[in-house]
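Q: Mind making up any chain with structure tokens?
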Amino acid sequence: MLSPLTNYSSEAIGVLFDQLIERKLPSFSLLDVPTLEKGAYAAFAVSDNLNKIPRRIAMNIEKIAAGKNPKDFPVNIESFTNQLVVNMQTANKIGKYPNWTLLDNALLVNINKPNTTRVLSLKSAIAEGIQNNLGYQIETKQTQINAKDLSLAKSNYLPNLDVESTGFFLDENTVNSSFGTRGSFNWTAGASFSQLILSEPALANIAIQKLLFESQQQAQKQSELDVILEVAQRYFNYLQVLSVAELQNDNIKAVNQNLRIASDKEKVGYSGASDVYRWETELDLAKTDLYNTNAQLKSIGYQLNESLNRPIDEIFAIEGTENINQFIAQLDQTFLNLIQDQTTFDQLADFMVNEALQNLPETEQIALAIAAQERLLKSNKRAFYLPTVGFGANYEYPIKIVNPGESPSIPGIEINNNPTWNAAFNVSIPLFAGGSRKLEQQKTQVGLYQLQDQQKDINNIFELQVRANMELVNASYNNIRLTKRAANSAEKNIEIVRNLYQSGQVDVITLVDAQNSLLGAQINATNAAYQFMIDYFVLQRSIGNYTFSC
């Protein structure tokens, strides 16, 4: 419990609270300013109370000057409040939290400021996603597998050399009938060599595996583009909900202020208790909305951790310099200028469609699939007339023969056990295969037509996506301007209506409507800005190239 630290400098107060936080000790201050800013755990919101004292003194002086007797003046101030304020940043640091009932009746400051050394920015989150995302890692390993498949296909055209050694036993009859070339036990060594010289199926397989490898490289690029979009969307969603939570917390403070005004009016008999009950209702509803938003914020945080392959419940903080205005300011001004009127917008849309058809890995994948099918069709046609040519050689050396059979004495014939070898060329020409080759050719031709239809369909789909995303970007960009103007007008309106309510010139319904309109306009302005950035990233993904510099 800390009394007013009037004899200490601002730096000394900061050191004091730093030490209390380091020792995990909650602190309660009788003053909210500047102790909450310096790290106090909780305090009474007495700033408004202290501001009322000079006004009471001035009013009393005015009454004395008018000839009234000071002994008749009241010495208490009925409008004093004991509003509890809790510093959630300090609560996160020391790991001790008030219960929910206490939080229901308190004002919260520094909400959603976790105690962690893990700080994310958009740039670091995207880099971490590309490095750690499991979906991208799966595609990377698939690319490595396809590279091995290509090497295996090429290995069919490399020479094959085998060596072997064999030891075997023979029965007596076989030994006796071998004319001395075999014994009861025989140990031999040998080698064989083969080289494929010409094979259309092998050549086709190499060409097709190369195209499949290139297609998988495009699939990996597609996965990278998807990861960047997913991380950016979840990052912006997190910032968006975080901003909404801060707006809702500010709204709770404003509703609490309106509740104090209604309470003051009731105490002096200017209004009844109905206004107080109405504002208490609005306060509870506002806190309910904040609790729901905080739950949504944690859920999106879990999703972002999943994209980065982090522990799902790992706490992180957002880089302090990151804000939506900074992101929008980094956009290509040429792009923003081209969406200002319909003529340039349509021209830009045409350009974006052309860029998409040239850059998208999905369109390149279908083109590579068509090339692979065409090569297979060519191989089917060549199967009717191209031969398969190969070369082979064998060598066998008898190491040891135990108890060889007797060799017959045949004049002019000498039996020996010298090494043997042979070499041969093989040429195989296809003649007839039961009609299967023709059927394979027809099947491949139909598959080619199917892929060509898919290519047209994919081009139409991606043109549709680009043009639709362009419209969304255009709409969300214009919404930023309109919702910001609406929020500014709502801020001006609430000040006027609150003053009128305080003086009794408007009823509570008018102020409630103005307060809700302000919150709705502020949330709309926040959502519009973040939605524009999300739509912009979706557009970049639909053209296959991210130009945003983060």
